[in-house]
Amino acid sequence: MSSAPRVSLIGAPTDVGAGVRGASMGPEALRVAQLQPALEAQGCDVIDRGNLSGPPNPWQPPVNGYRHLDEVVAWNQVVHEAVHAELQQGRLPLLLGGDHCLGIGSISAVARYCRETGKKLRVLWLDAHADFNTNTLTPTGNVHGMPVAVLCGHGPQALTHLGGHHPAIKPQMVRQIGIRSVDAGEKRLVHAENLEVFDMRYIDEMGMRHTMEMALALLDAQTHLHVSFDVDFLDAEVAPGVGTTVRGGPTYREAQLCMEMIADTGRLGSLDVVELNPALDVRNQTAEVAVDLIASLFGKSTLMRR
């Protein structure tokens, strides 16, 4: 990453993959919380590309284990093209979600870019959930519980082949951090695929510093680092404005350290910020916390020592 990252904000105002309405208002809440000025204060060159458009949320029950599959595909197609276009221009795409199903379009675009440029890919999945469900395992049919599985090749062809390559990524490219809510069948599939998961028990036992050292190990100059930040990664007391709060997540300080250690690598190449739900928030505090942590990803540091 150059000394001044060139960041493009891309809004994707939809909640088609979620079980609760409201994540569609996430992009605006992040803007209200002064995301662009916060990044500019870190020396970033920021362009706000505005919001992508896609089909409305029809709010229907699942069909064959998927809710709103056509709408999810449409949104992920526009996200894929938008993210890929920014990467091709040498810019850092910052996807403002929207629900986490959008990670399918975003990360498949990053993986496509890495294949085109001969780079290795590392994905940090910061989330309370493993998001490794399939249509046969899912209790809800909500696609925001499936994106990692889809990216690893489990799912409908319209999503698994989005970037023209199947699977978009291999499980060994992913490090999941903060996980504390996994369905039983989903857990078996995670184990079968050898996904590397640093769950909350691991973080409690080993600490966030060791966790991040492990998750960031072996990054080199040829590695593109993608961070997919689901705001429900944070403890619900810190971040109430999400549709799927799970108690016992990282504290504000732990999250801060996580973000600062990612920034220290200098390898951040793309970012998703998803599942912010202003309808469930308190005076936009979750958006403000998210903006603060995003600024830390771009170099805002609590470090005083040399």
From TrEMBL:
Species annotation: Caldimonas caldifontis
Example GO biological process: urea cycle
Pathway involvement of the protein, from the record: Nitrogen metabolism; urea cycle; L-ornithine and urea from L-arginine: step 1/1
UniProt keyword DNA damage present: no
GO cellular component annotations of the record: cytoplasm
Keywords, alphabetical: Arginine metabolism, Hydrolase, Manganese, Metal-binding
EC number in record: 3.5.3.1
Family: Belongs to the arginase family.
CDD domains per the UniProt record, alphabetical: Arginase (cd09989)
GO molecular function terms noted in the UniProt entry: arginase activity; manganese ion binding
Record protein name field: Arginase
Coiled coil: none
